[in-house]
Amino acid sequence: MSKKRATPTSRQLPQASPGLKSLSPLVGTWRISGGAKGQIRFEWMEGGFFLMQHVDLEYGERKITGIEMIGHQHRPGESPGPDICSRFYSFLDGLTLDYVYEFTGDTLTIWYGPRGSDNHFVGKFSKDGNSFRGAWKWPSGGYEVAGTRIT
């Protein structure tokens, strides 16, 4: 009598959320001008669960370089959270900054801290998706910025 071989059960692999995929228009390298100047680059991490931003900017006299990891918070045993959150790691001063992203239609909103914060960015993208104009605003100030896709 022959023994039957056990076959592994097929398991559905997790999929990245459609909300996170809404950030796909950001992928590429952007030249930034206005109140901040320099370059940013977005790329998908393997698996598609995180978008990474590489930052090389100047704001006033301050140099800002670092990386930002963007995705849903997902702890073991829990479902992914509803918001698209990020953490920016500053290379020059060791700061960690948290944000919430939302891309609806042609408008990108980024809140510093929690959704609805009075410190936020709102930018509108061109029809072809190769440029945007927007502004960071907070209670004591803000600045306008524009981006042009270079790749």
Give the integer mean of the pLDDT values: 92
Q: Level of helix content?
A: under 10%
Please state how the strands of the largest beta sheet are arranged side by side. Answer: 1-2-3-4-5-6-7-8-9-10
- Supply the number of structural domains: 1
Task: Output the structural class.
Answer: mainly beta
Structure description:
- This protein has 151 residues and is mainly beta.
- It has a single domain (18-149), classed as Lipocalin (Beta Barrel).
- 3% of the residues lie in helices and 54% in strands.
- The chain is built from one helix and ten strands.
- The chain has one helix spanning 18-21; strands spanning 28-34, 36-44, 51-59, 62-72, 84-90, 96-104, 107-112, 120-125, 131-138, 141-149.
- The protein has a ten-stranded antiparallel β-barrel with strand order 1-2-3-4-5-6-7-8-9-10.
- The chain is globular, with a radius of gyration of 19 Å.
- The chain starts with 17 loop residues before the first helix and ends with a strand.
